[in-house]
């Protein structure tokens, strides 16, 4: 990982002084700091694969948006912008509570840690709830791709008298549901991770010396927030001006 | 590197100030994106929206995800590698589609 002095003497002679080590320090790491850096690096490598995972979808989105821009603009206008903007703010607030949780763990503030984790989960649930309302609207309006899909006589923004091609709008909604659905799945997984973090924090497992799971879980949560920061303008705000 | 230099994110005097400042900036950025979307900027609407999104994403990565204070250079390398391959994917694909006069 980085240039290091040779292994500590205790390792070389095969001795292990328990009193010098935090119980969470695994034997194959030189010290707690190396262990933390390794965990963090592992998470970042995973996030890099997630960038490519979502990147493929963003790429598909860009290609079709270029081809069918007027239809994408019309379809985008049918999504509730206020709900999307609210959800963006909700996720940003949840990212703040995550860094507060990390800070609380670093500074041994157990109550703040637990409250921050609970607040993060609540905001995550609010996000999914708002997403549910949005999906419900799309089902009611028959904007869900499939047999009952309908997008007839929807005007193209900025082109009076012109209507969107329903087949092309359906591609927009397919991308909308796959991208936001995959994002929501990540939120649900994130809620599971944070439920476990909350349990471990409740048990008092995290200390200023060892709170790697909070940091790693936090990285994941921020990444999901980061994806949404791009999804919001790309899906909700294609052509909103009057 | 030894312990004291790598724990800068732990010992920095008040990260809270930074966190709240970034939080406010992200909320303002969100408001700005919504406002900019209501303006008719022609072909620049998309550029403005993506520009603000990228600024927000950068703030999240640098300060909330601690890339700025990352002690491990490999972490920065992984972030840059991820962005590089994403740009390769999007850049090469779009430069192909954007330069096809027949499609």
* Cα-atom radius of gyration of chain B: 18 Å
**Cα shape of chain A:** elongated
> What is the strand tally of chain A?
2
What is the domain tally of chain A? 1
Instruction: Quote the distance from N terminus to C terminus of chain A.
Output: 54 Å
Number of helices of chain B: 5
β-strand percent of chain A reads under 5%
- Report mean pLDDT of chain A, rounded to a whole number: 90
What's the mean pLDDT score of chain B?
A: 85
Structural class of chain B: mainly alpha
How are the strands of the largest sheet of chain A arranged? 1-2
Structural class designation of chain A: mainly alpha
List the secondary-structure elements of chain A in sequence, H or E.
Answer: HHHHHEEHH
Write up this protein.
The complex is a heterodimer of chains A (242) and B (103). With 242 residues, chain A is mainly alpha-helical. Chain A contains 7 helices and 2 strands; from the N terminus they run αααααββαα. In chain A, helix 2 (32-67) runs parallel beside helix 7 (212-236) and helix 4 (81-106) runs antiparallel to helix 5. The radius of gyration of chain A is 23 Å and the shape is elongated. Residues 9-15 of chain A have low confidence and may be disordered. Chain B is mainly alpha-helical and 103 residues long. Chain B has 2 domains: 3-70; 72-103. Helix content of chain B is 76%, strand content 0%. Chain B contains 5 helices and no strands. The model of chain B is unreliable at 1-11 (pLDDT under 50). Chains A and B meet through helix 2, helix 4 and helix 7 of A and helix 3, helix 4 and helix 5 of B.
